[in-house]
Design a protein that fits this description.
The structure is a single chain. It contains eleven helices and 34 strands. It is of the alpha+beta class and 535 residues long. The protein folds into three domains: 142 residues, Copper Amine Oxidase, Chain A, domain 1, CATH 3.30.457; 221 residues, Antithrombin, subunit I, domain 2 (Antithrombin, Chain I, domain 2, 2-Layer Sandwich); 142 residues, Alpha-1-antitrypsin, domain 1, CATH 2.30.39. The strands form seven sheets. A seven-stranded antiparallel sheet has the order 17-34-32-25-24-23-26. Helix 5 runs antiparallel to helix 6 and helix 5 crosses helix 7.
Length: 535
């Protein structure tokens, strides 16, 4: 074995003697990601005149290729793809086809190792190379995806997510809150409306309504509600407005006709009058029907004058379902340092899942049968705090790749409810909670009207077949080895979110030269955390 190794080193050094010695090279402070995974090379990457050079043998063997050397030829192959680097003739041949665009005259001998221009190694393998700066760090991404990345804004979703208590499981629905705030914005004017639109990210109410009617509500497919077949999924939004007339029944309407018209035309909503005797049963029955029975007893009493409610219902199968017979008991390490036994789903997803790892996080993306929707699971490395920010989420989404992943994650059923009044105030929406608010576009008499409570109730079920989730939001007013699958073992606290891809024409696309300006961003339907398996 020692003799064989000695001979191979002699051959390698003999070949490298024909290459340019590296004098102007500098070690590059750069990270290299291959299909979403940090390569963590043992040998450094070098840079010369803006060109990056990587250790040929290490990069090749890491992704399952064998490297052989003869005095004037280096061969990289994996059985069905063979790349020949002809040193003397400066020629690169891929499966007997010469690649004229490759120039290997700058191959290097650095400390006895063969270094190659990164383009001349990964391009013949069919990959694209993207160079970017991420949080002050130079990053090289080797990807199969040439499409551009449109940055999404997760800041509002994370602000709502922070309402969940640190040591408890929970979930919230940013899309339900967004639709509810959009309805409220349509009933306000002046500074009250401006604060809401600013948080939602719109300059005018017309922009907000256009997004709601053309991008959000068109997803809603009422006739599929409650179905969960192998090919069909469903998302369904419902919006309602109720006036509580008190102890006496009345037909007198307190809402502006223009607001009722917008509720119906933009939000496809309903407007009704209830009394103290009928309010609880009427509204709770409506919510239960709209959420396919998932949300019950939405309101506890009739202590309100106006109730504005959005419900969001989602049900969809995985694109690649987990097998029931692979589910087995396992230990989940709870956030309070205790352990609990729970049911873990297990499967090796062969190019039916997305994966990325970076900055102490692993991210798993599980597409649904309707490819518009995806569940992302964010798992921190052991010992890392369960705290994630907008930049980290965008970085993980930007680097995600369709790659084999060995997945282990718990089944779960979570139901939670929260008061978002203080959260919304902290986000900058304050006017609608004071008696100085302007609801003149909602009420015939808009004076002395304001919001007292913003409540949301959410339930989510994740199992082998897919996901079912529902949320209701209420506004109340009174006056390494890359050949092996990545391992994603969610046996400790993690964050999850369900998103829908939304097409958007935007100037926010990174790397516009790689694709058209029409691309997609992620709209968050649900976001939550699973931190304990205790019953």
């Amino acid at each position: 074995m020692k003799k064989k190794f000695f001979v191979s080193m002699l051959l390698c050094l003999g070949i490298l003697g024909n290459y340019h010695a590296a004098f102007a090279m500098e070690k590059a402070d750069v990270e290299l990601y291959y299909l979403g995974r940090n390569t963590m090379l043992d040998n450094p990457i070098y840079v010369e005149n803006g060109n990056y050079f990587v250790p040929l043998r290490e990069c090749a063997e890491q992704i399952g290729y064998e490297v052989s050397y003869t005095p004037s030829l280096i061969t990289v192959s994996n059985g069905y793809r063979k790349i020949e680097y002809h040193v003397d003739s400066n020629t690169v041949i891929l499966n007997d086809i010469a690649l004229k665009e490759c120039d290997i005259s700058d191959m290097k001998n650095i400390n006895g190792a063969c270094y190659i221009n990164i383009n001349n190694f990964y391009y013949p393998l069919g990959h694209y190379i993207i160079t970017m700066n991420e949080n002050g760090k130079e990053v090289l991404q080797i990807t199969d995806n040439k499409k551009p990345y449109l940055k999404s804004d997760f800041q509002n979703s994370l602000s709502l997510f922070h309402v969940i208590e640190k040591n408890k499981n929970g979930a919230v629905s940013p899309i339900s809150m967004k639709l509810s705030l959009a309805m409220v914005a349509n009933g306000t004017t002046g500074q009250t409306q401006k604060e809401i639109l600013n948080v939602l990210g719109y300059d005018t109410i017309e922009q907000c309504n256009d997004f709601v009617s053309n991008e959000i509500l068109k997803w809603s497919v009422e006739e599929k509600r409650g179905e969960n077949t192998a090919n069909d999924g469903s998302i369904y939004f419902a919006n309602g407005l109720w006036y509580n007339s008190g102890n006496e029944k009345t037909e007198k309407n307190i809402f502006n006709e223009s607001f009722i018209n917008r509720m119906q035309s933009v939000f496809k909503g309903v407007a009704n009058i209830v009394t103290n005797d009928t309010a609880v049963q009427t509204i709770n029955q409506w919510v239960e029907e709209q959420t396919n029975g998932m949300l019950k007893n939405m309101i506890p009493d009739a202590d309100f004058q106006t109730a504005l409610i959005n419900t969001t219902y989602f049900k969809c199968c995985w694109a690649d379902e987990f097998q029931n017979d692979k589910t087995e008991k396992g230990i989940f390490y709870n956030i309070d340092n205790t352990q609990s036994e729970t049911d873990f789903m297990h499967d090796v997803k062969k190019y039916t899942a997305y994966y990325c790892e970076s900055d102490g996080w692993q991210m798993l993306g599980l597409p649904y049968s309707d490819k518009k929707y995806t569940m992302y699971v964010f798992l921190p490395e052991k010992g890392k705090e369960l705290k994630i920010d907008d930049n980290t989420i965008n970085m993980l989404l930007r680097f995600k790749e369709n790659t084999p992943v060995e997945v282990t994650m718990p089944k779960f059923n979570i139901e939670s409810g929260y008061d978002f009044t203080n959260i919304l105030k902290a986000m900058g929406i304050k006017g609608m909670f004071s008696n100085a608010s302007d609801f003149s576009d909602m009420y015939i008499d808009g004076s002395q009207k304001y919001i007292t409570d913003v409540l949301q109730k959410t339930k989510i079920i994740v199992n082998e077949q897919g996901t079912e989730a529902a949320s209701g939001t209420m506004f109340f007013g009174m006056g390494m080895d890359m050949t092996k699958p990545a391992v994603f073992q969610a046996d400790r606290p993690f964050i999850y979110m369900i998103t829908a891809s939304v097409e958007e024409k935007s100037d926010k696309i990174l790397f516009p030269a790689l694709g058209e300006e029409n691309d997609k961003k992620e709209e968050v339907l649900f976001i939550g955390q699973y931190v304990t398996a205790k019953q």
